[in-house]
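Hi support team,

I'm opening this ticket because the web form for multi-chain structure prediction keeps timing out on my end. I have pasted the exact lines I submitted so you can reproduce it. The total is 236 residues across two entries, so I didn't expect it to be a heavy job. Is there a limit I'm missing, or should I split the entries? Thanks in advance, R.K.
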Amino acid sequence: MSFSEILKDSVAKVNGAVSALVIGTDGISVHEYISEKSIDLTGLSAEASTMIKDITMVAESLGLGVAREFSIVSDKFSIILRRINPEYYVAMVLKPGANFGKGRFILKMSVPKLEKEF
Amino acid sequence: MSFSEILKDSVAKVNGAVSALVIGTDGISVHEYISEKSIDLTGLSAEASTMIKDITMVAESLGLGVAREFSIVSDKFSIILRRINPEYYVAMVLKPGANFGKGRFILKMSVPKLEKEF
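Hello R.K., no limit was hit. The queue was backed up. Here is the completed structure from your submission:
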């Protein structure tokens, strides 16, 4: 499966998911799948880069081990980010009322598939 | 219910939850309940303060609206933070394999109870 197919498949499996993307820790979006327009994914990629750095530092400082996933739930959208490898993350954007738990699960399941594509 | 009771009750309701605390956005822990020793909660409170600021800025910059909740899932522990009001957050620390979804739900349910105590 290609990046496109994995991302599309992941969004399709989660009620309320609107997009999924592979983001480099340098802040560049590598691949995007959009089923419904939501937030600016270029902006998200750039912000994600900062968040990944901050949260990795927090996890180290608190002795949490490797930070595998982090998420933000807000009034308008939720974002889940999951680590593929030290250089890349996969993100999913969800609408309010989306199946957040399913989103976490599907994103986790997508990681080994995405890893093969690098 | 007092802070103590609400936090203790929240931890008791979630399989794998080890502690819950009320954190000020200034980085000071207001109240802690610990059922099992895990990470340094003073350190968590301080780091949470930085994360709250960063994530609030990210949410604003991406037009996400108010960030209600954020979480980190790592190899050793997971942390869920939920906004009580602009000055205070409630956090839950969970062991690997904990019921993360239940943790999110219970923390959300604790917010109106905690709000009354301020």
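A quick check on our side: Chain A is about 40% helix and 30% strand. Let us know if the file doesn't open in your viewer.
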